[in-house]
Amino acid sequence: MEPEIIPYSPILHRPRLAWPNGARVALWVCPNIEHYEYLPAFQRTRDPWPRSPHPDVLGYSIRDYGNRVGLWRLFAATDSLGIKCTVSLSMSVIQHYPKILEAMESRGWEYMSHGIYNTRYHWDFSEAEERAAMLESREIHRRMTGREQRGWFSPAATNTHRTFDLCGETGFDYVCDLYHDDQPFPVRTQTGDLISVPYSMDLNDVIIWRRGEEIESFCQQIRDHFATVYAEGAVQGRVMCIAVHPFWVAQPHRIRQFQAVLEELLSHPGVWATTAGEIADHWRATHRDAIEAHIAARSAIHG
């Protein structure tokens, strides 16, 4: 990562990050609740549906299952464990599916923007196009919830050179497009106050799916990841994000094992089950000044 965007700092050399109540790990579960267009337009650099000619009924139907069926199983699983999620949300979902919005609102879930549709990539967007998409996302969120939107995660993880500056400019205060750390960290922008909250492309069920692996592999990966960050968290607080897609993890033959592994994690003392926004708030309130001083000191030493 270029130093002017993310200052470099080895994690063990930083001031100690302490989570509430002495927790070792801040655990957040991130359902990707997305909407894919049945007949998307070609997005400049890649066809959103690899199976063509359109419509790709198979690809569309698999994903539509998540919003029709899988999500409701995931609600039941997280409810049973008292988990409040931060959603990576295609903003069109809450326009097309009011029942989904109603269900998420009743649970107090948080929504970071995952763009408008997950079939509308931002690669090669002009600055004006990307700014407009971010502002549209904020307007939809404001109109549908009465709240300001805080988090940004680009649709299908597609970025431009201006993404982070535009996030700061348009009012987002945390971003999940960076996978470079196990702690929140400042993101240098021309305007705005932006930090990175760690998201995961490793603990991510869609990556497991693309590798042709199954739920047993995903759950073991979660256990192994947790064992490491839980041990490390005794010295230096860590963030653990588990990213899931209801169309995959909430299939009937997978959801029980996923629920069971979450229960295992939560049975450990020192696990703070939280949201991305709460992580960002705690970091800003208790750790930001120390990190900024640490960055300034390193800069003075290393030039």
Model description:
The protein has a single domain, classed as Glycoside hydrolase/deacetylase (TIM Barrel, Alpha-Beta Barrel), CATH 3.20.20.370. The radius of gyration is 19 Å and the shape is globular. By secondary structure, it is an alpha/beta fold. A hairpin with a 6-residue loop joins strand 6 and strand 7. Helix 1 runs parallel beside helix 9. The strands form 2 sheets. Strands 1, 2, 3, 8 and 9 form a 5-stranded parallel beta sheet that branches. Strands 4-5-7-6 form a 4-stranded mixed beta sheet, with helices on both faces. Helices cover 44% and strands 12% of the residues.
List keywords for this structure.
alpha/beta; 303 residues; TIM Barrel; five-stranded parallel beta sheet; four-stranded mixed beta sheet; 11 helices
Chart the SSEs and their pairings.
Elements: E1 25-33, H1 57-81, E2 86-89, H2 92-96, H3 98-107, E3 110-113, H4 127-145, E4 151-152, H5 163-170, E5 174-175, E6 185-187, E7 194-196, H6 205-210, H7 215-232, E8 238-244, H8 246-249, H9 255-266, E9 271-273, H10 276-286, H11 288-302
Helix pairs in contact: 1-9, 4-5, 7-9
User: What is the residue-mean pLDDT, rounded to a whole number?
Assistant: 93
How many distinct domains? 1
Given helix and strand content, the structural type is: alpha/beta
**Separation of termini?**
17 Å
Given the C-alpha coordinates, what overall shape results? globular
Secondary-structure element order, as H and E? Answer: EHEHHEHEHEEEHHEHHEHH
> Looking at CATH, which topology would you report?
TIM Barrel
Helix content: 40-55%
Largest sheet: 5 strands, parallel
Number of strands: 9
Number of helices: 11
In percent, how much strand structure appears in the residues? 5-15%
CATH superfamily, by name, is Glycoside hydrolase/deacetylase
Q: Which CATH top level class fits?
A: Alpha Beta
